[in-house]
Amino acid sequence: MTTRSTEILVGMFVALGLGALFVLAMKVSNLNRLGGKESTYQLTAYFQNIGGLKVRAPVAVSGVRVGRVTDIVYDPKRWRARVTMAIDAQQDYFPADTAASIYTAGLLGEQYVALEPGAEEEKLKNGGEISYTQGALVLEEIISRFISNAATGNAASGGASKKGTPSADENVPKDPTPQK
After folding, report:
1. What's the total number of domains in the chain?
2. What is the pTM of this model?
């Protein structure tokens, strides 16, 4: 009898573990909503660099998810990436001068589109385009610029000066009036 109840307990534990793995997989893959299509409207935005933005990435305003990215394609006429977003129909209040930026959730988290509403009276409608965009900040680009600026800065000042030894720039008087 104890063997049978132990087997049932182990079976329920395994089933519960599989259910938890399924929920985790749905959260990670951004497939939280199952079933039919919700009522949405489409907005597009063009970005110079989308970084690691993916289809089904969240679209958020002030940290609140209001939609999802539905399509990402390269537009050869504009030489930019066109990002199409499905915005929940209840969120139909975005002004025509709304700005879109690509941010990263956390240090190495997923990327998402953040919308910042503007102040115009006219609202974005289905098929509307967000004109003001800021692409993703790519960590490699930032590091490359930092290293490049550091190398350029050292070369311009004649290299790093030793502590206590003034460089050529430090010998120039601060006051431009002639000394007597």
Report:
1. 2
2. 0.60
